[in-house]
Write a structure and sequence with these properties.
Aspartate Aminotransferase, domain 2; 3 domains; 8-stranded mixed β-sheet; globular
């Protein structure tokens, strides 16, 4: 099999050489009862195992297989998750006080990267449909570039948490006319590469840097991600230095083998992906008959700046007097755990590793639940927001300023000193340095009343504001 990391570690293990090196468990099964069968392959950097931060042997070869499979110029293992790739990308492309264009529905890791880089964010809003952040209007990007011609990079999320894809190809062409780097957080789209029934990956659409979470949609351990580089606009040496800064100096070989395994599995099982996507299409056709728990499908494409959507991501609107918390509780009673539930929508993630019978069971339970609910017409928010806003201060400065706790309801027009982030999906509604508006206060209270977990708000309903 074409798995150089695994093959080398397996051969080393079979030689039964006693390890006077890390890790501390020494692969001694006497002290690792009920641990993992693969413990004998947990190594560190020794002569035969290469070095992730300067790969010249088996890791280099495995990286080349990864890059060839996805069609990038180079690809990098992310053993600290996609977060590390996002942070390193921002740090390497935007210097302190330089401007970065940011889609406001980005994951918190983007904002952490902005703080660590010292960059000044310029925000544009996604189109909203059914109360859900959708695609990015290319006209907003064009207007932002005209207004702020010194922008160095643009970062956006595509697909979104709900599976919606922006027009990356057109966005890339526009940005490259101005020598602006395009960074795409494609954490939820690592599977796109393996079937034409999925949207086209940002790698093939001209993005300069694409970050993917293998563990989200491919058979891989949690925390495994990759970064794909596909551009001469990016300083490769700087990117590699930043990746080394934000990743451990003791990378897990288990994680690297997991990335390698997922790559090998998906590359060699494309017919299975096609069978899987055909099943998904039939399943979605059935689910479109639901009335109160409405599956978002092709209807999302109109007036949303979405060019495509992921058919393996099931996003449902709740057209009833119950909320997502209630739907989630009923499904849990039937041994089904959702990925996410909100006030008026829920998300279920399917992957290539799913059991088809379990997917059909999910469908049947949804229909029973759908029939038990009373239909209620919901007035969803649908809007195009053409606002282009600049942070009141560099988020890095705001992050380090003195702060006080204050009740949310008393925070109108105050400057936020921390992140306020609903989980899931981990998209901040407030970041350090932002002005707290009436709209934001209403949104926070709505999250709280619908039992949605919010980081940055304590149990006294207080958040950190910057001292005057």
């Amino acid at each position: 099999m074409d798995r150089p990391i695994y093959n080398t570690l397996k051969n080393l293990s079979d030689k039964n050489i006693y390890p006077f090196h890390m890790p501390g468990h020494k692969r001694n099964l006497k002290f690792l009862e009920n641990f993992y069968d693969f413990i004998n392959l947990d190594y560190t950097e020794i002569d035969e195992t290469d070095n992730m931060h300067k790969p010249e042997g088996i890791i280099k070869k495995s990286k080349e297989i990864l890059s060839n499979t996805f069609g990038s110029q180079d690809s990098y293992f992310l053993v600290n998750g996609s977060t590390s790739g996002i942070i390193a990308s921002i740090m390497s492309c935007v210097l302190p006080n330089e401007q970065i264009l940011v889609a406001k529905n980005c994951h918190i890791s983007v904002y952490n990267g902005i703080i660590l880089s010292g960059a000044l964010p310029i925000y544009i809003e996604p189109t909203i449909k059914y109360n859900i952040p959708c695609g990015i209007d290319i006209k907003n990007i064009e207007n932002a570039i005209k207004k702020y011609p010194n922008i160095k990079a643009f970062i956006l999320t595509s697909p979104t948490y709900e599976g919606f894809v922006s027009d990356i190809e057109s966005i890339a062409k526009l940005l490259h006319k101005h020598n602006i780097i395009l960074i795409v957080d494609e954490a939820h789209g690592a599977h796109f590469n393996f079937s034409n029934n999925f949207p086209k990956s940002a790698i093939k659409c001209g993005a300069d840097i694409v970050i993917q979470s293998f563990h989200k949609t491919l058979p891989s351990f949690t925390q495994c991600g990759v970064l794909h580089l596909n551009s001469s606009l990016v300083n490769k040496n700087m990117l590699e230095k930043c990746l080394s800064m934000v990743q451990t100096t003791s990378p897990s070989y288990m994680f690297m083998m997991s990335i390698e395994y997922a790559t090998n599995f998906c590359k060699n099982n494309k017919p299975y992906f096609n069978e899987y996507t055909l099943f998904l299409k039939d399943l979605r056709d059935n689910l479109k008959q639901l009335k109160t728990i409405k599956l978002i499908d092709t209807d999302i494409l109109e007036n949303s700046n979405i060019i495509n959507f992921d058919i393996s991501r099931f996003t449902f609107l709740i057209n009833s007097n119950v909320n997502g918390d209630y739907i989630n509780s009923i499904l849990k009673e039937n041994n089904i755990q959702l990925e996410m539930y909100g006030k008026n929508h829920i998300i279920a993630i399917s992957t290539i590793c799913d059991d088809y019978d379990e997917l059909l069971k999910f469908k049947d339970i949804l229909f029973k639940l759908d029939n038990s609910l009373e239909y209620k017409k919901i007035e969803y928010e649908n809007k195009f927001n053409n606002n282009i806003t600049v942070a009141t201060m560099v988020p890095r400065d705001a992050f380090y300023m003195r702060k006080n706790l204050l009740n949310v309801d008393l925070c109108l027009n105050k400057i936020c000193g921390d992140f306020v982030t609903p989980y899931p999906p981990g998209i901040p509604i407030l970041t350090p340095g932002e002005i707290i508006t009436k709209e934001i206060i209403i949104k926070i209270n709505s999250y709280i009343s619908n039992n949605i977990n919010i980081l940055g708000i304590n149990n006294k309903k207080e958040l950190y504001i910057i001292e005057n």
